[in-house]
Design a protein that fits this description.
By secondary structure, the protein is α+β, with helices and mostly antiparallel strands. The protein contains 14 helices and 14 strands. The relative contact order is 0.14.
């Protein structure tokens, strides 16, 4: 992948994820009111789905040429497709990398300060950890999902409140919410320049806690008052950690207590909401992928006019059989791929279609196999050969520019000397 490809992916994924974040911010409250907090929390999975959709290869549009352009393609020239961003791309990528590293270091520092503030951890007979401090606790900490309780846990809360708090934290652990927080923290580091991700991270943590509250109340419907009293007793977290699910990590108390007044959604309404959310997620992810600009590739095999210099390049396979490798475009320097010995012995023929990024000096900047028949037989030998090829670069305003071209490479068996016309090799 070239720097231009990375820059283009960053732009496309930023646009897709930003549109999705705006959509989620608009839908989270109506969905929560209609179908419950768990459905609204599920909607946040749209954000990584949008980034993933932007990472899947874009639709490919094959452009055929005729006339003078076909003559030029047959002669080995290319259609200009300049790289995105020009000469500033390396500088933009350097700034992006520096910002991502700085954001990641900030997240790690916050996590380290939180762990250091816990002091010496003591484990009780139930496998729960008790810290020497109370700031930011209770919480589920780390990717292993350890429940850490404050030093005054037994004194501050009643038995009923302690049971509800532990139920809350165990739901976080069962749902692997810490892993979700880690993913959101990683996205915030990668897209540190986008303020929407900072807003999304805050709202994501709020909806996470509201969804957990809703699940606890659904399982303990007679404990709403005790649950609300436990919230009031809990101190505001002074040291939030990225890889932790805090019982009260800065989430508005009024919003959480207000939700306790509403009846929990029934199973049917929750199911309808989950189906609706799943449909929105699938449809939006597909739209994010389909909306990407199509990759336009010059098809050198369509409507091409034979050129007198475009001759096959012949490679000897050894033994009684002869193998030929035909390259459908003329290049300045063409080293023929080596016909694999096993394929030559079994008289296997095939074709490999290469996508080649050609630099402005005509060298191969990158190459990959678009498709091959049979798969995997001729791929590696073709890649090895293409790395040393040289092309006539595309010209734009009288200057050579980078571009991309498709090159079909056909592997065939030559007829043995003296074989009759129409015979088989």
């Amino acid at each position: 992948m070239t720097q231009a490809d990375v820059f283009r992916w960053l732009l496309e994924s930023t646009c897709a994820s930003s549109a999705v974040i705006v959509l989620v911010l608009l839908l989270r409250r109506p969905l929560r009111a209609m179908f419950g907090a768990n459905v609204a929390y599920l909607l946040w999975s749209l954000v990584p789905m949008a980034v993933l959709a932007a990472s899947i290869p874009a639709p490919v549009v094959h452009v055929s040429f005729s006339g003078a352009v076909s003559d030029a393609l047959a002669a080995g020239t290319m259609v200009a497709m300049p790289a995105t961003g020009g000469a500033l791309v390396p500088w933009w990528l350097a700034i992006w990398c520096a910002g991502a590293v700085a954001a990641a270091m900030s997240q790690l520092a916050a996590q380290w300060r939180f762990h250091r503030g816990l002091g010496t951890l003591r484990i009780d007979r139930d496998g729960l950890l008790h810290a020497e401090s109370s700031a930011g606790l209770p919480a589920v900490v780390g990717l292993r999902g350890r429940i850490v309780l404050p030093a005054d846990f037994d004194l501050r809360y009643s038995a009923a409140e302690r049971a509800l708090i532990l139920a809350h934290e165990r739901i976080h652990r069962a749902r692997a919410d810490v892993a979700g927080n880690a993913l959101m923290a990683g996205l915030r580091c990668a897209y540190w320049f986008n303020p929407l991700f900072w807003i999304a991270a805050d709202r994501f943590r709020r909806d996470q806690e509201l969804a957990c509250d809703e699940t606890v109340i659904a399982r303990h419907p007679q404990s709403r008052r005790a649950y609300g009293e436990a919230m009031v007793k809990t101190q505001l977290s002074a040291m939030p950690a990225p890889l932790a699910c805090h019982w009260f990590g800065g989430h508005p108390l009024k919003e959480r207590i207000a939700m306790l007044k509403h009846p929990s959604p029934g199973a049917r309404r929750t199911t309808v909401g989950l189906i609706l959310a799943g449909s929105v997620i699938a449809g939006t992810a597909y739209a994010a992928w389909a909306a990407r600009p199509a990759e336009r590739i010059a098809d050198t095999t369509a409507q091409s006019v034979p050129h007198p210099q475009a001759r096959p390049v012949v490679a000897q396979a050894g033994g009684r059989a002869h193998a030929a490798t035909r390259v459908d475009i003329q290049s300045k320097t063409t080293t023929p791929p080596k016909y694999p010995a096993g394929a030559a012995a079994s008289k296997t023929t095939g074709k490999v279609v290469m996508l080649i990024d050609v630099a402005a000096d005509g060298s191969v900047a990158d190459a990959r196999v678009e498709r091959s028949e049979p798969a995997g037989v001729f791929d590696q030998v073709t890649l090895d050969a293409v790395k040393g090829w040289k092309f006539e670069p595309a010209m734009e305003n009288g200057k050579p520019v980078a571009g991309r071209i498709r090159v079909p490479v056909t592997f065939e068996m030559d007829k043995p000397a003296g074989a009759p016309a129409g015979g088989k090799a």
